[in-house]
Design goal:
Nucleotidyltransferase, domain 5; 5-stranded mixed beta sheet; single chain; 25 strands; 32% helix; transposition; alpha+beta; 5-stranded antiparallel beta sheet; 558 residues
Amino acid sequence: MSWSGTWPGGSVRCTRRDRSGTGNRSSSPRRPRAGPNSAAKPTRRRPGWTGRRCGGARTIRFPKPSATAGGLLLLWSPSANLSLRQVLLTVEVSGVGLSVGASTVRLVITTHAYRFALDPTPRQVGALLRHTGAARVAYNWLLAVVKANLSQREAERSYGMAEAELTPSLSWSMYSLRKAWNQAKADVAPWWPECSKEAYATGLDRLATALKNWSDSKKGRRRGPRMGFPRFKSKRKATPSVRFTTGVIRLDGRMHVVLPVLGRIKTHESTHKLGRLIEAGTARIKSATVRQEAQRWCVSFTVEVQRAERTPTRPDAVIGVDLELKTLAVFSDGRPAAENPKHLAGARRKLRRLSRTVSRRQGPDRRTGQQPSNRWKRANAQRNRVHHRVTALRRDGIHKLTTSLTREYGTVVVEDLNVASMVKNWKLARSIADAGFGEIRRQLAYKTVWTGGRLEVADRWFPSSKTCSACGNVRPKLPLRVRTYVCENCGLILDRDENAALNLTALVKRHVAGSGPETVNGRGADRKTPPGGAGGRPAPGGSRPGKTGIFVQEWASH
């Protein structure tokens, strides 16, 4: 099988990779190793290209063609047990699209985050703490200036002064805050040359964002819950974090990173996954954020990655996902339900024991100025590590679930759950928070963009559990304790979660096909589904163009 395509010139890298990870080794038996008495056969290379094999991938680099060369021939001979769906073909050309056969490979640029744990030296830990402290100082000082300016103007208004005679207001833009800081930093922080300018810019940027969110929320321009006025950051409670956007930000080998002013820092794990993309010229680091979590320093790189556009394995398939507590997710196509691991419930016994130990140690007291003892610090660190492990296990399980769904199905349908109101139920609040419903929705939002799929969000008042998936009859009441749905109209008996998943799938299919525009709302009255989709309105992180992910942006170059 061969594919031919136009090539305007330059270097092209064609990579084929077996998704199962076995590569070519499963298709042909391994050749016996040459013994001391056997003559070694010379390696045969096809003229015009050089090949490199690494695990299940093979990279072919073609030389730049002559002026008379009008095209490029890409050859691929699949083995007998390796189907076309199992082979990932990625053609990377600088800024162009490559025509392959009857189709066109589109190159897209997506924003990814690569996170690595660090192993800094004690001196580097001190430098990291200085940078995070500098960001907190800049934030708190500018916030005090803003509050003083607002209080002064409010007091002058109470005196009956005209608006033109009031103290000039302070602009909340990043430019104005940076200008005010640069004018006063020599007096406020005489030690400012010891840290990178990015440390102070981190605090100023966070303050500008917080003030804008508060202002937009107050004026009704911001969606979501009401935002309060920014508060001062405490050294004891605030998470140490600093962001670098300029300067020397790069990888140094496989086990080191280089950051401005901080220099070369050893990593706890290999950075090979990101390094090979940078070496191939398909990735570019935009920023780096250093953060301390559970006594561990981590660096997160925001990277622009150029790759071929992907499509799900079953692009026309639609799956409804009903989230619940007994089993984490129930699906409409009959695949086994995702079990709820309940990591927090499993760690509660250990947390109770460690919390008792912490309470019996001499902890900090802000009223008397008492400092915590070393035994309290060690016990508190042990408790924090348990919480951190629970968070990591939950995140890992959700990543595996959402990745499997977005890679296989073209359309994923979920409900618009009001998690903030659900956790107000004191009997189920801990279980709902442990399940991570909001994180599942967030990951599905940006992963469907990466894989070329679509996320549909059903309306919050759509009665997925009360509606019969066979005849469409709606029950007026269905208590949560009733786990089996029994239709009084057609006699259907089905698990309520499976019935809800089927209704989610049918809702999107009816809307897409245009054969059934009518749906039923939570009160049993008929209502037309709006043209925006099954959700009735674009939801945060839903399927609106350009708004489908928090950290995802996509461009296509032809």
